[in-house]
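Lab manual, section 2.4: Encoding a predicted structure.

Procedure: take the sequence of the chain (449 residues), apply the prediction step described in section 2.3, and record the output as structure tokens. A sample record is shown.
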Amino acid sequence: MEEDTIVAISTALSNSAISIVRLSGKDAISIANKVFTRNVDNFSSHTINYGYIKDNDEIIDEVLLTIMKKPNTYTKEDIVEINTHGGIVTTNRVLELLINNGARLAEPGEFTKRAFLNGRIDLTQAESVMDIIESKTKTANKVALKSLTGKTKNFINEQRQILLDLISQIEVNIDYPEYQDIEEVTISNIKEEVTKVINNLEIQKKDSDNLNYIKNGINTLIIGKPNVGKSSLLNKLLDEDKAIVTDIEGTTRDIVEGQINLDGIILNLIDTAGIRNTDNKIEQIGIKKSLDKISDANLVIVVLDLSRKLSSEDKEILNKTKDKTRIIVLNKNDLDKKLVLEEDLDNVIELNTIEDKNIEVLKTKIKELFNLNKIDNDNTSVLTTSRQITNVTKAINSLKEAINKVDVNPIDLIEIDIKDALYYLGEITGENYDEEILDNLFENFCVGK
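Recorded output:
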């Protein structure tokens, strides 16, 4: 299949200023030559050329044609990109014309897949391409760009090299024990090198939580009794009237969601139905959904009303959220205070939703809890996907198993665990890969990438 010349529309199909139709493969130039009014064979590589796309004698569009000859291209194959006017009909006609002249419609992510298979990028860089496309903030975009430059690949390769050197020493000692000038691999040497790699991997794995927040945002649940100010707090954070606010208990009966950008990190805000005992079946459904959301939240904001005494419902909410990362908001501090907490709790702040400065206090507390001010973007370009994190976890477990065996097992059995770790790290970069995993990875890409 890799011998085929593929084609796809690489821009959003809409009524826009331009669209780009991309060809890649050994016949890209010859196919383009069949439909362009000038001789493409005469063009120098990496040049933009003016002309028309034609179907026999019919002019389809006035275009700019870019030619890029292998190997200095995205796929390391010949690439032709045709900049058409951005109409849907025109763009589709150019695409259809190229298919009729010998190109095959590309599969999702096939251009990037070819870049990987042809050795231009590794799997971590391929994944970063998708991260760049999907990034919602400048911070997320910056992290993805760091990974695209090869920082993740370099880190993983450094750990693999340590293990490769150790395996080489072990095998030489096993195969040639009679040679006196060979450096002997000692138990302490194995422990030292393996521990070094474990520590390096665990540091990066720990930092992956911050990366997840950068990419996907912090799922933030706002929960509390009816009329404590949950919806007002949501509206204030969003700076819009997203949720209906009334004095009637049970106004919010379903999940209300919104997003804000907090210093480059997205907060996925979820306002919930007020927690209380009720006979209203619709409200009961909303309350159940609210409680179910607790387990999925990265952050829970428990809202209590300072102007009312602590109730059994308040206590239930505090108990259900005690094991979560949470902030307890004592709302309505502009009124007479009647609420007294029965124990000292962490991350408690007083505010009201009338004054803007109070909302800034809450935002500051969130940034403190998640160390958002300390995220070093220069060091956050590793382990950016669950696939990478899973393989690093497997590698760490294998290396720990090697450490556990080192004092009681023959050295060749220890080598098996080290080789397993080497394999898992190789899966991250694509040194070794499974075709099914590869297909699954690229099928999430858009067709033209």
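Check your result against the sample. Residues 241-255 have pLDDT under 50 and may be disordered.
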